[in-house]
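Inputs:
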Amino acid sequence: MDLFNAIIQVLDSTIRLSVPLLLACLAGLYSERAGVFDIGLEGKMLVGAFAGAAAASVFHSALIGLGMAILISVAFAMIHGFASITHRGNQIVSGVAINFIAAGSTIMLGQAWFSQGGRTPALAPGERFEAINWPGAEALRAVPILGPIYAELISGHSILVYLAFLIVPFTWWVLFRTRFGLRLRAVGENPAAVDTAGISVAWLRYRALICTGVLTGIAGAYLSMVQNGGFVKDMTAGKGYIALAALIFAKWKPVNAMFACLLFGFLDALSIRLQGTPLPVIGKVPVQFMQALPYVLTVILLAGFIGKAIPPRAGGVPYVKER
Amino acid sequence: MSTPYAKLPAWADYGLIPVINLAVAFIVAGFVVMLVGENPFRAAVILVEGAFGRGSGIAFTLFYATTFIFSGLSVAVAAHCGLFNIGGEGQGYIAGLGIGIVCLAFDSVLPWWLTFPIAIVASAAMGALWALIPAYLQAKRGSHIVITTIMFNFIAASVMVYALVGFLKPPSSMAPQTRTFLDGAQLPKLNWVIELFGAKIRSAPLNICFLLALVMAFLVWLLIWRTRLGYEMRTYGHSPKAARYAGISETRIIIIAMMISGALAGMMALNPTMGDQHNVALDFVSGAGFVGIAVALMGRLHPVGIVLAAILFGMLYQGGAELAFEMPAISRDMIVIIQGLVILFAGALEHMFRPYVQALFASFSPRSVGIEAAKGKGA
Amino acid sequence: MAQAAIELIGINKSFGAVRANRDINLEIARGTIHGIVGENGAGKSTLMSILYGFYQADSGEIRVGGKPASIKTPNDAIGLGIGMVHQHFMLVDNFSVLENVILGAESDALLKKSIAKARSELERLEREYGLEVDPDAIIEELPVGLQQRVEILKALYRGAEILILDEPTGVLTPAEADHLFRILKQLKEQGKTVVLITHKLREIMAITDKVSVMRQGTMVATRVTKETTVGELAELMVGRRVLLRVEKGEAEAGAVKLAVKNLTVKDQRGVTMVDDISFDLRAGEIVGIAGVAGNGQSELLEAISGIRRAVSGSVMLDGKPIDLTGAADPGELRDRGLAHVPEDRHHVGLVLAFEENENSILGYHDDERYLRGPFLDIDAIRNDAKDKITKYDIRPADCRLKTANFSGGNQQKIVLAREMEQDPGVLIVGQPTRGVDVGAIEFIHKRLIAMRDQGKAVLVVSVELDEIRSLSDRILVMFAGRIVGERGPEATEGELGLLMAGVEQREAAE
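Outputs:
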């Protein structure tokens, strides 16, 4: 029974840890599917986290916090668009710039406004998204097997967690069942085809980046308003890059993205859980090995040794009408 | 790109446009300063005084610049071959492993001037090795080098934590860092050079790595513009098709360029470890690898420009520290913002002001911009 | 003739210094198939892109159905019932046929209705025009002929009354091309107007009602197809250029320097571009390869010079084989005395961002003369470049100037000087005078003949028929990847033109 409880706990933290990855990964999916590489997910998440926590604590409202997180994150996405779509700048360079600006400005503004060493004030109950307990969760907890699964895994998360997992089928639906999705996928594969069909390549890509900004904003809000009761400097801690790795791992598909993020989240949860505990047969697994595993897996995938990750064909290339 | 080539005189291309880009970056940074309620002009004065006002300020500025010269050169070498090495951070970090092992092994038996060359080789070798796998995967399997080098940054971080906690730290210690190096692995300081000019310095970490950095800048210049290998790298960087025509092996040139780039990134680890802290600690690179991107872009991939840009960033780091001290509303993270803005305006938005500058030149002297068009017609 | 579907009046378009279209007038009658012929670069595609709203004309007027039309975007063109099948298909490769057809023409924000509508519409079009294609197939899994059919369907689905096809048969097998022509005739019978852009005269003769000829950005002539001949069109296309004939003596052909046997080369799409070609090149002769651009000449050159892998066949250089199917190395070929002036000097033959002297060693940068150990011997390189500048009269005479700042003719001289001064046994030259001014043309021709007189073997590929005739001791004509004939330098333009149009080959086959 101890083992069962341990598994439930690991799975529970898997969910919690994979949510920001999932949101950021889906964010990247919109932009990369439209042919714009985005290594600035990290930075956009970070400004989202900061703006969310800051606004929530100032206005005493979790919803205003969330709105502000989205707004600022979208603004940063628009900078990326301005550089890489309008001015056809290097998308990687632009992404790097955004990560720097985000890292610096969140701490500096945080310090200037709240004077808590770059933190935002701890959020009070109404200022953060609380866990939602599903009906009967407590009553059913005692039921063997199913009870803890219901009470721990399904119930007891914040609204943003459910939202993140709902966005997976929603994204699938948008991509494959709507006009916008069709065009978005097309512009990432062959922008010239979109252009000759009479659709603006630039506007389409900007809209994709808006979607990216919205999702990184929610991801950031989750970090600072759910996982943590406030903003802490550099709290994304490379999650934007793991999300990028997950996106490659998922081969740019929404449902795959969910599984990839759950896998990476699981590795994270496991490494926390196993800290110092020896495993049967294998012995003690270094925590660092588990932490590096997502990256190692992604490199192996990129090398084409396990399946082939084919990125959207027009990715990374600014669209120039050919002569 | 529609008009990538010389439509402007060289001085405008290499001087005026970078200066405009830099100026815009600083103007935007000035707005950020205003946003936190401080006077940007006063901030600028404090920053410059902090960096150059006193002897130790200069020494600190040059100390920071040392690391940035290495990382800037690293980015530039890869860029000349058309490759974006975003993995300098990891290559530099993993080089700390080589340096740590060498120093721990030899600091009690060898003098510094023997340990240092061994450590240089070890750091360069580790950095090159860490760049080799992404390079190979790019050349042979077409794996995007930007993504693989990012992944290798994180893998390096895990390896280093493992190494530091696992065997580099003394068993009795809790801190994830090596023991302090003995004299045999402590590099001599260069502060006396600045004291020659009459300045007084209490303690500053400027050390002979600065000279090594200048030597490497010269060697990189030699490599890129004066060797056959550099010629081949530039050819491939400008036009893979022309390289193919010229009989240059794609695989070979990618791997060599990345390994040199990785070696330079590796060598940046010497400065903070053997030169300053006298140990290898967790996160000792602290973003210097990424600063290299800004430095290389700002320096237009030329070693002279890179040295100047590195000193500029060294100034920001040192002056930024003073600034944080003088103006409580501004923290040292201001420099991170400025770096980001420099990368944005000198890198991603590099060409934003070019049409305006061109139009300006055209209105003054139509000939200087019209040269190509006029000749094209004559042909 | 019926009322005009399209009238173009005084169309001008420049790209920088290049005038792609000058003062073009054209009238296309409704319900006809109108051909537009011309060599590559004559401005046909630009003209049609203007009509389709992909580019904007600098000046001029477009009338559609007699009314002045303002076509600023492809959307405007689509709205006016103009559809275009591009040379490079504008398809999303990993989309299904249906998805490609509805892209940009969706009926509402959700796809379900659009797809259902497109499915029934495709069924109708299939019935009416014989345009069969599986609506759920993925594009990249379809053969090119069917991909093209999807492009046509896309245009018809958008209600195109006027259909422009840009070089539609370039990627098709003869059988696929025949099928396409049947479809086009059917479209005509249904009252649609078809504009066919091509450089293949056989196609023009086979299916058009009228044909307009373009040359160097101008509209040279319009003929009723029945009243013209392939010979006349070929002449109009190529034009009678004023050529400064270079004096040359009889060739004294010596030993075989380069022997090409059964060479077959495919391009990156897997289309066979060079089809089982064999020929010999001897010392002391210039062999010219004539042909309309796009008939495999480029691929042939690239294969011989080691840049592109061949599928099969062999090439012997001085009696020793070159491994062309494996990893051939252009550097090794240079060492063995094969020099190559590539067709595309901007991206292949030169690095435009380099200084002139740096380009003057490209490919020979590992030659001892230019090196001191691992270092470049800058003085030697610059002196060598200065010598070449003097010898080849390259202007401006500044070896430190960026190559992009030289004119086309001088850039070509930089390449020629580099390759010729290595004293190669075999010289392969692609388009020796493309984009080169008249003065430089004469200079380059003289140099090539001087090479021959020194006993070198020279292979020249050019789309300029005059150039081929003036330089060559023997002329090989390429058509559809094959050598369809060999003639002496005395062959007439008309005779060569027919060969280039593939006419004789067809007659011989029948």
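Remarks. The beta strands of chain A are 131-132, 157-158. Residues 2-124+160-302 of chain A form a domain with the ABC transporter involved in vitamin B12 uptake, BtuC fold (CATH 1.10.3470).
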